[in-house]
Amino acid sequence: MDIFSRFFSFDFLKDALIVAIPALICITIHELAHGFTAYKLGDDTAKKMGRLTFNPIKHIDIVGLLMILLVGFGWAKPVPVNMRNFKHPKGYMAITAIAGPLSNLILAVIVMFLFLLFSPYKTVESFIFHSMYGSPSIISLIVFRMALLNVMLAVFNLLPIPPLDGSKVIFSLLPEDMYNKLMKYERFGMIFLLLLVFSGRFLNFDVFDFLVWRPAMFVFMGIADFSGNVIGIFV
């Protein structure tokens, strides 16, 4: 099969949907949470630029989308925030920043609860086993990946590395002059993040696995256990 035929094969299109649909939903909710929180705190920049919307096209970053399709993890176009519109710039910026990861964790709990409630798989382990030795439905794969990706996105964004949300929270605790100096170097953080994501391919130690994947799986399994226990009590 030539490369053109492979890219238009059913398996490739199915895999692309399983990756792209959850990713678009996750990043849309994440960026919308930033914009809505900033709006409520006094900054209407995102609203004026049409970013307070559930339309994923408004939040897509082309390079980030390609990363999602190629390696399964990427990013969206950041929602614009003007700190000068905040009554308390550093504090409100920290609240705006934490709103993104928090929205993903809340969505992960909701999605996992619905997944365990309505799917034939009552535990994550049973679904993983069936995925390895059976053929789960596309809907099951999309919903499961959505729950997992939300957790990964939250954990990743909580890293204290500019321009991630965690850095804005940590930087808000610093003195004003140091805060302003560090924010100037925010744009260079993306280079470091790309090295982090691909560290496993160049180093003997996979930094992304250690800082993101393992913590995300710990949180994910905690959410799954919590959801399963709640369902067991009330259903």
Write the layout of secondary structure elements.
Blueprint: H1 3-7, H2 10-40, H3 45-48, H4 62-71, H5 89-118, H6 124-133, H7 138-157, H8 165-171, H9 176-184, H10 189-197, H11 199-202, H12 207-234
Q: Can you put this structure into words, describing what you see?
A:
The protein has 235 residues and is mainly α. It has one domain (3-234). The chain has 12 helices and no strands. The chain has helices spanning 3-7, 10-40, 45-48, 62-71, 89-118, 124-133, 138-157, 165-171, 176-184, 189-197, 199-202, 207-234. Helix 5 (89-118) packs antiparallel against helix 7.
Helical fraction = over 70%
Order of helices and strands: HHHHHHHHHHHH
First-residue to last-residue Cα separation: 49 Å
Number of helices, counting only DSSP H or I runs of 4 residues or more: 12
Mean pLDDT: 85
Described by the principal axes of the CA atoms, the overall outline is globular
Number of strands: 0
Counting structural domains, the number is 1
Report Rg.
19 Å
Beta content: under 5%
Sheet with the most strands, sense and barrel status: none
Low-pLDDT residue intervals, each spanning 5 or more residues: 1-8
Structural class: mainly alpha
